[in-house]
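Handout for the seminar on molecular recognition.
Each group receives one record of this type.
Step one: identify the two inputs.
Step two: read the structure output and locate the region that could contact iron/sulfur cluster.
Step three: write two sentences on what you found, then compare them with the reference statements printed after the record.
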Amino acid sequence: MKTKRLLLGDEAFALGAINAGLSGAYAYPGTPSTEILEFVQKDPVARERGIHSHWSSNEKTAMEEALGMSFCGKRSMTSMKHVGLNVAADPFVNSAMTGANGGLLVVAADDPSMHSSQNEQDSRFYADFAMIPLLEPSSQQEAYDMAAYGFELSERLAIPVVVRFVTRLSHSRAVVECHDEPAPENSLHYPANPLQWVLMPAMSKRRNRQLIADQESFERASEESPFNKYIEGADHRVGIVASGVAFNYLMECFDGNPPFPVLKISQYPLPKKSLRRLYDSCDSLLVLEEGQPVIERQLRGVFDAGKKIYGKLSGDVVRDGELSPDAVRASILKVRPDVKGLSEGAIHGDSDVVVSRPPALCPGCGHRDVYAALNAALAEYESPKVFGDIGCYTLGFLKPFSAIDTCVDMGASITMAKGASDAGQFPAVAIIGDSTFTHSGMTGLLDAINEDTSMLVIISDNLTTGMTGGQDSQGTGKLEEICLGLGANPAHVRTIDSLPKNVEEMKQLFKEEIEHKGLSVVISRRECIQTARRHAGAKKA
Ligand code: SF4
């Protein structure tokens, strides 16, 4: 039996995975992928079945945990935002060498336009780099259907499969037709070739040759994929290659009936035969893809021998930020100004209704008091530098605090402060949240402990992962023990409640520890008021 549900793209994929016999989901929260694991955690079938779905310390550990479950023959997935794949890159690339036993899906959610990210990197490069297949849903229905398809593909080809989301698909809702009968989970069974999972040079060399040989079957799977479609069109002056959500925008521009031949791409490696067919039958090609010019670049290498290829590299499709129906419409008009049947563009300008609001720390947030105290403490120094990190507290960069000098990647506050201190910077201060600390800060702290670097590390502990909506933080209740366990000097691991009444005391504490010639850690603690409210509400209910 089938039912219809209104779901976010993230939720549709999570439900599709549960209904396809998922046994374990591993993730670190990050916009726009967070809702995938959240859905698994709340879904009644997943709970009843006991599907494993806890937050991991970071994307690398999540990837390795999912790989371990796949080794045991069960279907697993890991989900992360695009920059999380950088953190998971080591096990991710090596998972192409081990292959998969139980179906293994690696979901990377890209954020073109950088709504909540540091860059616009395109995860399709990673799949190409690791030489493994990638699926790119163009709708919520495809997101749902691709979970089961992806598990089957992963098991059939014995390789992890990447699923690439983008923000618009992750965070928009549509009606999705779902199966009511979840498939059974795989039983525990081990890889047919266990030696493939021991990546020592002799085994790896053999496996690498196999992976290269397997590329042919990966490409054949793309040619035969139900998600890659060739659509005939009468006007052969342009053939359009449209991938992922760009295909939807194209359909919207022509009310579902474009006059040109179209090749929809939702599975990689690229289906070269279908591309050749389009290229040979059209005078030119227009490439529409969300993110970076991944397809266009590959086409130019293969086909750029005479016929014009229009796309991001040629300047005919907008190169940065997200695509939209309007952007696609503008590109088509550039390439074929006389095109017929193009629908009217919607007005996507500034809204009179939605007033843009700059981001800010919530009123009453403990990070505010930390910054007030830190700024007061540092006012007495000539050239203090504060190395920031990724979380709500990054907003300390903005007015009224203007309190941090850098923000690069998860954990970089501590390591950059250490490098600066090594260079002679004084004072050198790192500020990092509790969740970011357990994600990627602990190893950097160990470096600083080992050299007793003169620097102050502030762990602003809000007892949650605040920025992504209040998921569990792995260090809650044990940050002091972690720091001491790593070897920090107990005399310089100090704790304070970051409350307005303690700002003066916090300032004095920061000053004392800045003056200490060695490493100091101050843990400033106050629960995120958003999660505190939720917890209070849950208690009342
Ligand atoms: S969500 Fe929580 S941690 Fe983030 S700014 Fe608001 S109160 Fe602070």
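Reference statements: The chain has 20 helices and 18 strands. Residues 361-362, 365, 367, 392, 462, 466, 528-530 surround iron/sulfur cluster (CB under 6 Å).
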